[in-house]
Write a structure and sequence with these properties.
CATH architecture: Sandwich
CATH topology: Immunoglobulin-like
Radius of gyration: 12 Å
Helix content: under 10%
Number of strands: 8
CATH superfamily: Golgi alpha-mannosidase II
Number of domains: 1
Distance between the termini: 19 Å
Strand content: over 45%
Shape: globular
CATH class: Mainly Beta
């Protein structure tokens, strides 16, 4: 797992493959601010699957404010 903190926004890149812990296929963003932020995703990790509206299928890389957003490699 790789975690970065940019101000108050916490981004964690996770691998669901125990044999490849640095092959990140899931990114979770916790944004406690009131403003949306653009997220830089690892190569190949581009589908937003969960946001403030629930389950989604989007290529947007925006994480809304006061929310947890999940991106998954397709």
């Amino acid at each position: 797992m790789a975690t970065t903190i940019n101000g108050s926004v916490v981004t964690s890149a996770l691998s669901s493959h125990a044999g490849a812990p640095t092959s990140h296929d899931t990114v979770v963003v916790y944004n406690p601010t009131n403003s949306a932020v653009d997220v830089t995703l690892p190569a190949g990790t581009g589908k937003k699957v969960l946001d403030t509206h629930g389950a989604t299928d989007s290529t947007s890389t925006t994480a809304d404010g006061l929310a947890v957003t999940v991106f998954k490699k397709p």
